[in-house]
Amino acid sequence: MIIAIDGPTASGKGTIAKRVADHYALKRLDTGALYRAVALAVLDAGADPTDPAAALAAARALDPAAIDKTRIRSGAVGTAASLVAAMPAVRAELLALQRRFAADPAGAVLDGRDIATVICPEADVKLYVTASLEERARRRWRELEARGEPTDLLALTAEIAARDARDAARPVSPLVQAPDAHLLDTTGLSIDEAAAAARRIIDGARRARP
User: Fold this and answer.
1) Are 59 and 92 in contact (CB under 8 A)?
2) Residue 62: how many CA atoms within 13 Å on its side-chain side?
3) What whole-number distance in Å separates Cα of residue 73 and Cα of residue 110?
4) Which domain holds residue 57?
5) Fewer CB in 10 Å around end: N or C, the chain?
6) 74: CATH
7) What is the distance of C-alpha 140 from the center of its chain?
8) With a threshold of 0.85, does the pTM exceed it?
């Protein structure tokens, strides 16, 4: 069973994907972490995240097993990730890696921004997880504050809105809800409630399969 979960920044898709993978005993790939890791490598090299050559070099050198899952979560890396993720060459470089992960006969859960539309268009179940801009900004603000990265909420809201626009407008693999994806709005839901709602959708989709 392949489960594809897409959605914008701080919608809750990553946490839901982890809960879903645990529940169904499936492996999980956070594809956004790949782009964040590429962005972090570019920044660590002192390069400009808008430089296609630097971003492609970082993507080619990426070792998924060596991703620093703490450092990739900074606000600066998130902004840089949205820039490198818009580059067709970077996306093409990471495409094969993601599809190899999804090809495991045992099944998998993948979350990102183009899983249901590009990476796994034939996924057994597709979810599009979202929440209001204000709620997503508050979530990311709390996350950054908890990590000791004081952030202005209004500025962060504007930054996330700008990232939403970049993700939706990029010419390659834009963030869109697949026509056959189930919408899950997590605004006002706790993570337990959101994960339970995702499981209900998945179980219903599995029962409906011929």
Assistant:
1) no
2) 29
3) 18
4) 2-208
5) C
6) 3.40.50.300
7) 14
8) yes
Going by pLDDT thresholds of 50, 70 and 90, the confidence category of residue 149 is: confident
Q: Is the pLDDT score of 80 beyond 80?
A: yes
110 φ, ψ to 5°? Answer: -125, 135
Tell how strand 108-112 and strand 27-30 pair up: parallel
Under DSSP, is residue 127 helix (H, G, I), strand (E, B) or coil?
Answer: strand
**Residue 147: which pLDDT band, with cuts at 50, 70 and 90?**
confident
* 154-169: pLDDT as tens digits: 999 999 999 999 899 9
* Domains of the chain: total: 1
Q: Is residue 170 scored above 90 in pLDDT?
A: no
Cβ atoms of residues 89 and 52 within 8 Å: yes
CA gap 31, 111 in Å, rounded: 6
Amino acid identity, residue 53? A
> Which strands make up the sheet holding 182-185, listed edge to edge?
27-30, 108-112, 2-6, 125-130, 182-185
